[in-house]
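Input/output pair, single chain:
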Amino acid sequence: MKLLDGGHHGARLTEEDRLRLIHWIDANGVYYDRYESDAYGPKRNLFASEPRKELESTYARRCATCHNSGDGRQDTWWLSLNRRDVALSRALMAPLAQSAGGWQRCGEAVFANKDDPDYRRFLAALTGLRTMLAQRPREDLLSLKGTAVESQPVVLPAPPPPMPDEAGSAWVYLSNLPWESGRAGWTRNGDGLPRRDRDVTENLLRLGKQRYRKGLGTHAPSEIVYRLDGQYARFRATVGGAEQGGTVVFQVFGDDRLLFESGVLKGMGEVKTTDVSVARVDRLRLVVTDGGDNYYADMANWADAKLERADVAATADRGR
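Output:
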């Protein structure tokens, strides 16, 4: 998903498209774009011998110069099939000129138009494969024909509403307060801003196997600043990295005085809790650094981050 979020080949997903793709991945949806593969033996050799030989000859003549395969046996990407519209298959669209409606991914167009004899050979062979698979369904291609479920409109659920602070509660969630400034080293949409009650990929906050409805999501290097003006007594949060392979360090500063430092936390398994006094602190700074290596995979979450109100804390102390 990071590859797509970074604009892979100019791809721009709508939020709904992105969520559908995430749900498909999470559901382990079955779909191969490449049905022919020598790497998996006869189970994935679907073309009969003669059509295969003809296509290998065409591939060797028109494609192999750039794709470094003399007979096509090592590069079966060219047999990728778009099951809904065969003409949109990669082997047809990538070499087809843009003026003819193709992608023209091969530099100069290999097929100037759809009347090219080799284009027609590829189209006929892939259409035959589509027909064969429709007539003889396979267990690993369950959705080839489409299902009743696929034809139904899917309405994605709305995210849960923000969790308010309880009336009269001594604690206030940071995500319910405006920050003075905030920056994140990486965000999915490139705006460079931390997220409230979500991580920077717009998913629920997560540390290890635990998910949190409240908190701040960011990515190293990051700094989030709040004006407290002495109105709060304590700050609490559970902190940790939110990506495998990352290394992050969390720091809490009160009026530029270091109140907490987590040390280097690796991956998603190392989590720490901070509980520090912020009595008479005017300016709270929450900092995440990259652990001294680089900021690759350094998503970081301040989960359940909250402040204790000084007036309520003082009342509670007097009542003891």
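The mean pLDDT is 79. Residues 171-309 form a domain with the Jelly Rolls fold (CATH 2.60.120.1060).
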